[in-house]
Structure prediction request, 113 residues.
Amino acid sequence: MIDVQFIQDREGNVVGFRMKGHAGYAAYGQDIVCAAVSALVINTVNSIEKFTQDSFAYDQEKEKDLVTFRITSAQVSTSSQLLLDSLVLGLTAIEAEYGKKHVKVRKKGKQEV
Prediction:
């Protein structure tokens, strides 16, 4: 299962995420759920990098099947917020379509950033 945990600031805005695991929907190289999730995540990170001025921390640990991303700018731009909200929407739709057995999306409680 792919476990995606979104990180929220104290106002409830998504400012990052932690993603771990594999969907297990199909064999390696043919798993459409993994491919869909990966495409959304990679596109979101690339879009924030290209289209915003926000600073962020990104780390990928392939051996642990772990990706972490977090906006580090003092103020998250409306563009980054829109892109992250779009990621939540897309991943939630995949979760609804293929089930929590393959993708689990959750939000970590509001916190100081």
In short: The chain has one domain: 2-111. Residues 2-111 form a domain with the Alpha-Beta Plaits fold (CATH 3.30.70.1490). The first helix runs from residue 32 to 51.
